[in-house]
Amino acid sequence: MAGNVGERWEEYLRLGRRMSSHTVSAYLGDLHSLMEFLSLDADVTPEQLREALTHRAVRSWLARTLADGGARSTIARHTAAIRNFTSWAMREGILASDPAALLSSPRADQRLPSPLDESDARLLLNAARDEAAAGGASQIRNWAILELTYACGLRVSEVCGLDISSLNREALTVRVVGKGNKERVVPYGPPAADALDHWLVRGRPQLAGERSGDALFLGDKGGRIDPRVVRSMVHKMAARAGVHDIAPHGLRHSTATHLLQGGADLRAVQEMLGHSSLSTTQRYTHVDTARLSAIYQRAHPRA
Q1: What pLDDT is recorded for position 108?
Q2: What is the average pLDDT across 244-249?
Q3: Is 275 an active-site residue?
Q4: Catalytic residue at 258?
Q5: In this structure, how many other beta carbons lie within 10 angstroms of the beta carbon of residue 66?
Q6: Predicted TM-score (pTM) of this structure
């Protein structure tokens, strides 16, 4: 992946920009995709990179992604990644000019996943609890992950990155490292505490091994659990619980929606979810407005 150039950029993203491992991995994947499109291999020289990496070439790569059915959010991330790379490469003297400087990022699709209503969220979590009672370590882990994700509105990368030391079991809070390595402390309630207690006492010891370290949630082979495993588990659990299909991020949206419906302050929800901008949190008010409009249509005599 652009050889030593890719490794140097990766170091810059991790140490200079302090990006999360999830974002770094996504950005490196975008660079690898562009290099493949340009027919450049891992041993590419700066001279070859300068010749191949033109504004037109980058636009053609983005156009192919769009033609292949890429979502606007994917195009936006591709654009952000390559603009970051070319800007860095020019500062490092690898590129003579910035071929991506004039690229404009499409607005990401603002549609939110359909959240679970409160009764369906209860069905999902109760189904996970029942499976944990009848199953083994993996089922207890799945219950704890679902309870904590819903309780705190966590991103899947945040869940997988948690350590045992992240928990304050007396205060019922968890210290979360979110986007940009920003830390926040989020409270959780007794149901999540109960699931975590079962996991730490009964489940985790059965899976723990030399590779476990301080990781809170472990995969079946004892290492830190992979986000792909969690995503797959949530989809399958939703199907077994009889609720509509949902991903971990949809569960996070459900948390935000239910908090606002319950009267939570918008700023508090922003802090809890780790949004850098209040406008991101405000998107959830549209969900609640739609609910209120439906109630109005049913209830008001002049509707």
Answers
A1: 53
A2: 90
A3: yes
A4: no
A5: 15
A6: 0.65
